[in-house]
Amino acid sequence: xxxxxxxxxxxxxxxxxxxxxxxxxxxxxxxxxxxxxxxxxxxxxxxxxxxxxxxxxxxxxxxxxxxxxxxxxxxxxxxxxxxxxxxxxxxxxxxxxxxxxxxxxxxxxxxxxxxxxxxxxxxxxxxxxxxxxxxxxxxxxxxxxxxxxxxxxxxxxxxxxxxxxxxxxxxxxxxxxxxxxxxxxxxxxxxxxxxxxxxxxxxxxxxxxxxxxxxxxxxxxxxxxxxxxxxxxxxxxxxxxxxxxxxxxxxxxxxxxxxxxxxxxxxxxxxxxxxxxxxxxxxxxxxxxxxxxxxxxxxxxxxxxxxxxxxxxxxxxxxxxxxxxxxxxxxxxxxxxxxxxxxxxxxxxxxxxxxxxxxxxxxxxxxxxxxxxxxxxxxxxxxxxxxxxxxxxxxxxxx
Length: 399
Ligand SMILES: [Zn+2]
Fold this sequence. Notes:
This protein is mostly helical. 51% of the residues lie in helices and 4% in strands. The radius of gyration is 32 Å and the shape is elongated. The chain starts with a helix and ends in an 8-residue tail after the last helix.
């Protein structure tokens, strides 16, 4: 079944493995799968592919048809692109497979360097000249001294220039490296995953590999704990996701949209609530006059001034560390999530539905939403009446 599926994919998309392993946007055509296209053109693809993914793939070369000549690490730890930048800079078709870089002659593999470079280019002329003098051959590369061999010395050819000598030396060197890997006719390439003992790819091992490779500077331990704690809140998953993005500053506020080229800037980037300052995450949620009023009112309603200052309440990482009573922390955290979520919804309503911002409505939504979420997370739904929640929220939902 797997083979049929593979054949079907190849018939529809061509040599997908080769294309993905090359990752060259220029080889994508209109008929490519959107999935692969998105993957290949994504911002991180090059970084993920060449700095990380390739190093986890072990290439077992058959006839070389599915392995990119330049990009795959098929001769050792590095790709030819990295090991031979001079040759790579002259190469004609970067996306060729190994199979297209030579020929089987009398059952044996011979590299054909004239095909490596654009027809008519100086590099192709040098390669042709070298081939003419039989100064390279796949199975028995001549010594480097042959570049100045007597057979060639008398010819006033292109091979006598400094460029030619450099190219000839590079060709001989790359040939020496490539000849360590036998190319076998009638045998397909296969790839194994270097990060597992059985060579099989698993999404989990790939995720862990990328996570370790791509993670930025380590986060302070208290923030790691707070981030992990976020997932314990019994609120809808979309709210948890929003909170997580919020803490990472990944909310599409207007400054972020300007940075990504979605908005032009200027009046486009002004805060939707006050229309005075640039809308950044910190302005919209904490520094805007309207948000400040909301936080003050929520802070007074919760009556937590004995535990926290109002600034500490606004900082998720701070109140997490300062409130040790689990029930109180759960209530404060849930209200905090409801506050940022409702501010965001109201801001969106102002922008997209042209609604006027209502402070009273905003406060009622925060109180109602947080009560609903906490009720849903407790088995006894009558644990706290909405009336009590309005008056003394911290005394509600005690287990
Ligand atoms: Zn504002």
